[in-house]
Design goal:
Elements lengths: L1 H15 L6 E6 L5 E3 L4 E8 H4 L7 E6 L4 E6 L4 E6 L6 E3 L1 E4 L2 E4 L3 E6 L5 E5 L4 E5 L5 E5 L15 E6 L5 E5 L6 E4 L5 E5 L8 H7 L4 H8 L5 E7 L5 E6 L3 H9 L10 E4 L27 H6 L7 E6 L5 E5 L4 E5 L5 E6 L11 E7 L2 E6 L4 E7 L1 H14 L3 H14 L4 H13 L3 H10 L3 H18 L6 H20 L16 H18 L8 E9 L2 E8 L6 H5 L26 H21 L9 H5 L24 E6 L2 H11 L7 E5 L6 E6 L5 H11 L4 E3 L3 H10 L1 E4 L3 H6 L2
Antiparallel strand pairs: 1-2, 1-24, 3-27, 4-5, 5-6, 6-7, 8-9, 10-11, 11-12, 12-13, 14-15, 15-16, 16-17, 18-19, 19-20, 21-22, 22-23, 23-24, 25-26, 26-27, 28-29, 30-32, 30-33, 31-32, 31-34
Amino acid sequence: MKRCAAILFVALLMCLAALPVNGAGYTYNSEGKAAASPDAFRVQKVYKYNDIGTTAFSGAADIKISPSGRVAVSDTAGNRIIMFNTDGSGLQIFDSFLRDGKRETFMSPSGMFYTSDGRLFVCDRGHGRILEFDRELKFLKSIENLNKTLLPEGFSFNPSAVAADKWGTVYCISYSSTNGYLRFDSSGEFRGFQGSPKTSLSVAEKFWYKFMTKEQKERKAVSVPVNFNYLAVDSDGFVYTTETNANVGDTAAAVKSGEKSGLFMPVKKFNFSGSDILKRKDNFAPAGDIDFETGYAANERESGELWASDLSYIELGEQGIYYVIDSKRNKIFCYDPNGVLLYAFGGTGNQTGMFSKLTAISYYGGKLYALDSNNSSVTVFEETEYGTLLRETVIAAANKDNTAAKKGWKELLSLNGNLTAAYTGLGKIYLDEKNYSGALKCFSAARDRDNYSVAFSKQRTAFLNRMFILIPIAAAALLSALVFLFGRLARYNAAKRTGTLSELAYGTEKAKVLFRDMMQQAAYEFGFEAEDIPLMIEAIPLSADTIILIITKVEYPEEIDTRFSKFSEGDESDFDSYSQEDGSGVALEGADDILGLYRKMQEERQKAEQELKQSADFVPLEATFSNKEQEVPEKNDAKKEPVDVFTDITKLFVFQNLDNVTRLAHVLNGFYHDQNDLYKNPANKKFYLVIHKGKHTPEDFNKVCNILSEYAHQERYTDALAAYFEEHYNVIVSSNALEVLAEL
């Protein structure tokens, strides 16, 4: 009991803690406020240049650790690479090499990269080349003298950062280039740029441009493409980059607003086609410091730059964990694979664990090696118990090891009540365990709206499935359509059917034909989709010769037995209280709502029938259900319209990007003209188009949906989704989205 109280007290203190002092570890809570955190790393050793046994390396640019544990520091100003063991011993100065029998030297070496087999790549920036050496530092090959026909006019090759994937593809950043990063094949042949900033506005940018203020447009007009600062490649070949936006205000506004796209974001992850796929699932995208309200000095707040971090370097850890450097404030930020901040530490100062000019970091064996180029020093950080627990828990969660992850998240929360990643991670585990109440509490604490809504939806579904409900909520809206459809089909086939309802017995051919017709027409006119979904068919007698058929989708077939287990063979005494004098049947539990809907439909239909009472081709609904043969007059007036009750159909289509939505809008321009709303999911950056049939005929709306299917994929739509989209998604255009986009 005392231990529990102590843990709660510590957690409370952390939740109430203000912004930590410079150098101390911290994180951001769900509201984007800096809050103290246990230290994930502590200083193990600081190696000054004299400790290593060399002269100062004040111009150092990069630090890397070889697979064998050798530290390499590129001394740009000294035209050399300084190498030593992780304990500070074994100094080696690498400043020249033999190439084709001739000795050559470095000129301003900068970025470096070690392969898994110990090969070393060096950006020899002053000579405009990338050099490759074997594990014994023997020259292998050089990438230089690029084919100028493949390069932009005036391009100068000044490699400043390099990395290679396991297939031998080499990626490089050329200093001051705004064309993206360069890609070379294993033989060193240039294969083009990737991640290139667009030279013209995309469709999405054109769209947003229409809503910009005058000041924003002016700032956009003078914007220049971003510069990549550094890059790294993971084991799957994905390229991570950091970049600096010329207009830090754009980045600041984007992060503050919760924007999850890559636009103005300083950290990106590119796939093989050069598309940004970095996950940004936290409330705030990875951008360094985000506490722009209270975290910084008054002169910074007044300057207009506020909190804008300059993320100059990125280092990859284990299984998607990555570290970035804010060179503006000499801090290190650590993110999990979903872009959730785990912790931050460092700062500017002379104290141990702080820096004068933090230039580069390297992760090796659970330790971080931090290069301070101004102090000519390397600080070795080792994980604390908290840091190790956090790393192992993140990895367990990534590997779907819920047992280990659950234990880890709970322990972490007892140590740090501000750790948003722990609330989210624990909530996801509870969701997998169908502990929806626990998941809701965790997602609420993390202010994770998307996952909270998922948990709430699943909790509601589970509750409804435990209870006996004659018609699920999702199918209630379709009930009236199906009842009316039965009437239409009955009327349509009145001339052909002269039998009785008894002929629709289970298994008869007529019953099968009728059911197929009903399902086809229900899908066509009312959007009732039931492919590969079990159906439950129920009949409610209204009179001796009239029934209502209820067709319900059964998404959880295993619960059918549970639904009907409450019904047992009745005793005759059970019926004593019911009067059967009028010959009416007894409504089952839950049928009142069905009958209410039916009566409402009947009122609407009677109103319409009143207007067409004199019509020659009018057949009353009662007659269509009658077992008596009815005459069906021939249609002799083409202008007369059949009785119909307006029925809307709503479909949901998901697009990968706004460009596809816009292209579709141009295709449908002038053909479709009814309500349609466009939303954007900030989590997955996809666009959701909710489109209504409205006054369109089923034929025309079916054509529209077929065209839509070529540009997007369809998902199930329920009435509850509309409210969910309004609350959690970004409303791009409401009511007439396709019309607006068609004008772009």
